[in-house]
Design brief:
It comes from Acer negundo (Box elder). Keywords: Amino-acid transport, Membrane, Transmembrane, Transmembrane helix, Transport. It holds the Pfam family Aa_trans. It is found in: Membrane. The chain is mainly α. The protein is built from 13 helices and four strands. The longest helix is centred in the first third of the chain and has 43 residues. The chain is globular, with a radius of gyration of 22 Å.
Length: 462
């Protein structure tokens, strides 16, 4: 029996791993893919998307071998990303890695909050206004109450003990993500068919790739840079790869199973991304918005189903990113004050449900609730869909997706300096660092520009 250090039993399989991974990769970034194609054009857009998928897969399969050290099959387990960094690269790198990784996970929670609330508001606007008054009606919907409702729901779900106990959440999230992905592809394809396959868009980068054709050239360039970050966010997977791998049973070997999980999840999501990005851009060209669902007006009931699927998916996907953040803070709380009343386990029996009990600590209850509330407030202050996603993707791509995994594998596999593999790692790292820098610059520039015109605690419909 596989018993973890915290007492839980590892029961994960290939299929539960795929569910977690699929939930982590297919997320809110998928709705911005056609917009990214609009910024990069037909030549560079698909090439960059496929390149991000290939790079993520290449580094992820090397990271799978770093779950156990020094031997990838029989070595000591590293329960999370930071644990692998500590074991292979030493404590000096742990602090930097931890700050970047958990900032990325927290940023993803912010991005998921924004996206979910936008879909909630869009669903409300469609049901209460468009269905009755037509698509040309002007309907104002305040998103603040939906933001608070979403935060309250996540406070409840946050009390789920750990990621392995949340496996059913990932299954639901994976199914709903497939649902709205197929709806977006179907609606975009229908638009193309109705226009007799009149493919729109441009070959050139930043060539009127905005709904505002009077936009300054400098802003268009920032949007090109930001699109790189959005595409990087769409493959935001390696940050929780080892946490997912830590849920797997040891037979067969975790690294072999996780490589299959990685191939299935990244391969399938890449096909979805290409389909959604290209069909959406071909259908609407340079007029494609940041959130593709906001461009569909026909078959409103199907758009409503897609928005509902987005809401359900991101409610549960939020927890896939939140649980590792909760875990690291709770380990710190337990090691700092091990005898505190905050760490005392309380049990509540639900009498009307047979043999159902709830175990909790005051530390978990308070810490997780405060963290979710704070995240919700930050999302209300910075409600910029594309800019936030771009910045999160930029923050994580080079250090977490490329540098640390390849550096750890270099130590794990004893890759010799100057060898062909070492040279490939260095070139890939350099290219990825440049992408991260330009993506961060573009996203920060867009956030600063949006802040000039934004209203506090107000989310614009995209």
């Amino acid at each position: 029996m596989d018993v973890a250090d915290d007492g839980r039993i590892r029961t994960g399989t290939l299929w539960t791993g795929i569910a977690h991974a699929f939930t982590a990769t297919i997320g809110s970034g998928i709705l911005a893919l056609p917009w990214c194609m609009g910024q990069l054009g037909w030549i560079l857009g698909p090439f960059v998307l496929v390149s991000f998928a290939a790079i993520t897969y290449y580094t992820a399969i090397h990271l799978c071998d770093c779950y156990r050290t020094p031997d990838p099959v029989n070595g000591r387990r590293n329960n999370n990303y930071m644990g692998a960094v500590r074991a292979l690269l030493g404590p000096r790198n742990v602090l930097i890695c931890g700050i970047i990784q958990y900032s990325n996970l927290w940023g993803s929670m912010i991005g998921y909050t924004i996206t979910t609330v936008i879909s909630m508001a869009a669903l409300k606007r469609s049901i209460s206004c468009f269905h009755e008054k037509g698509r040309s009606a002007r309907c104002e919907v305040s998103a603040n109450k939906y933001m608070l409702l979403y935060g309250a729901f996540e406070v409840i779900l946050s009390q789920c003990p750990n990621l392995e106990k949340a496996a059913f959440l990932s299954v639901v999230a994976a199914v709903t993500s497939l649902l709205y992905s197929f709806i977006v592809i179907g609606l975009s394809s229908a638009k193309l068919i109705s226009s007799h396959f009149d493919f729109k868009g441009s070959l050139m980068v930043a060539h009127q790739s905005s709904m505002d054709t009077d936009m300054p050239s400098s802003t268009k360039i920032w949007h090109v840079f930001q699109a790189f970050g959005n595409l990087a966010f769409a493959f935001n997977y390696t940050t929780i790869l080892l946490e997912i791998q830590d849920t797997l049973k040891s037979a067969p070997a975790e690294n072999k199973v996780m490589k299959k999980v990685t191939l299935c999840s990244i391969g399938s999501t890449a096909l979805f991304y290409i389909s959604i990005g290209c069909t959406g851009y071909a259908a609407y060209g340079n007029q494609v918005p940041g959130n593709i669902l906001s461009r569909f007006y026909n078959l409103l009931w199907l758009v409503d189903v897609a928005n509902l699927a987005v809401i359900v998916h991101l409610i549960f996907a939020y927890q896939v990113y939140a649980q590792p953040v909760f875990a690291v803070h709770e380990r710190w709380l337990g090691s700092t004050w091990p005898t505190s009343f905050l760490n005392r386990i309380h049990t509540i029996k639900i009498t009307f449900i047979h043999n159902f009990t709830i175990h909790f600590t005051l530390g978990r209850l308070l810490l997780r609730s405060i963290f979710v509330i704070f995240t919700t407030l930050v999302a209300m202050i910075f409600p910029f869909f594309n800019a936030v996603l771009g910045f999160i993707g930029a923050l994580s791509f080079w250090p977490l997706t490329v540098y640390f995994p390849l550096t750890m594998y270099t130590v794990q596999a004893n890759i010799k300096r100057g060898s062909s593999t070492w040279i490939v790692f260095q070139v890939l790292g350099l290219v990825s660092m440049v992408v991260t820098l330009i993506s961060a610059v573009g996203s920060i520039a867009d956030i600063l520009e949006n802040r000039k015109h934004a209203k506090l605690f107000h989310i614009d419909q995209l």
